[in-house]
Amino acid sequence: ILNVEQSPQSLHVQEGDSTNFTCSFPSSNFYALHWYRWETAKSPEALFVMTLNGDEKKKGRISATLNTKEGYSYLYIKGSQPEDSATYLCASRSLNRDDKIIFGKGTRLHILP
Amino acid sequence: DARVTQTPRHKVTEMGQEVTMRCQPILGHNTVFWYRQTMMQGLELLAYFRNRAPLDDSGMPKDRFSAEMPDATLATLKIQPSEPRDSAVYFCASGFGGGANVLTFGAGSRLTVL
Q1: CB contact, 8 Å: A102 with chain B?
Q2: In B, residues 9-48, which contact A (CB 8 Å cutoff)?
Q3: In the prediction, which pLDDT does B55 show?
Q4: Where are the beta strands (DSSP E) in A1-113?
Q5: Do A46 and B106 touch (CB under 8 A)?
Q6: CB of B89 within 8 Å of any CB in chain A?
Q7: CA-to-CA distance for A87 and B105, rounded, in angstroms?
Q8: What span, in angstroms and rounded, lies between the C-alpha atoms of A45 and A89?
Q9: What angle do CA A55, A56, A62 make, to 5 degrees?
Q10: Minimal Cα–Cα distance from A34 to chain B, Å?
Q11: Is the distance from CB of B49 to CB of B60 less than 8 angstroms?
């Protein structure tokens, strides 16, 4: 994997249901994986940053896991609420000289009432 | 709350005109990133700086875009001449230190080139 890829691109979930989506990233020279939440007409806001294989982070009903060896991270939302509707971005930072932060295209989550 | 401040918030200009977007990073942050929001590419990295030094601007069209950081409190992104395909929302984000620290984004500058 050369780029940061997220799937699915879009997701509709019934209110109250739980859901999850995936971020795949280059595993070589991995340094950190970020998750951001981006509401329409606003700017992205940080949710988590993870660096170690097996890391798990949690904030309320949202949690994330990290597998650096195979290059993927999952974001989980438990008991979806309308306010969870947003685009969820992941970004990978590599341990290279240039130390870029590269974003995936995001997963657009729609919570259905 | 500490904020990343971007100006202008909205800019409408005509093709061929120069456009300058400004970003004031959070005091103490030493990395600044410029991204462009596009439908196809999501958040596209244009350029970034660490300790005011440009580290990578390979994402920018070199013939018309330039990014600078004249001091620690100001980063600029300039387009000259602007073209309709440059119409997008441009985000500045700042952070501190290495990759384990998240970015704080500004509100974005929405550019429309007619």
Answers
A1: yes
A2: 33, 35, 41-43, 45, 48
A3: 86
A4: 5-7, 10-14, 19-24, 30-38, 45-50, 56-59, 62-67, 72-77, 86-94, 101-103, 107-112
A5: no
A6: no
A7: 15
A8: 9
A9: 150
A10: 7
A11: no
Encode pLDDT of A98-110 as tens digits: 678 889 999 999 9
Q: Tell me if B99 and A102 make a contact (CB, 8 A cut-off).
A: no
Cβ <8 Å between B45 and A103 = yes
Chain A residues whose beta carbon lies within 8 Å of the beta carbon of residue B35: 103
Across the interface, whether the CB atoms of B42 and A100 are under 8 A apart is answered no
Of A44, A95, A98, the CB nearest to B105: A44
Residue B63: strand, helix, or coil: coil
Which residues are within 8 A (CB) of A2 and not within 5 positions of it... i.e. 6 or more apart? Answer: A26
Higher-scoring residue by pLDDT: A28, B20: B20
**pLDDT tens, B62-109?**
899 999 999 999 999 999 999 999 999 999 999 987 667 889 999 999
For residues B33-57, give the mean pLDDT. 88
CA–CA separation, B35 vs A4, rounded Å? Answer: 15
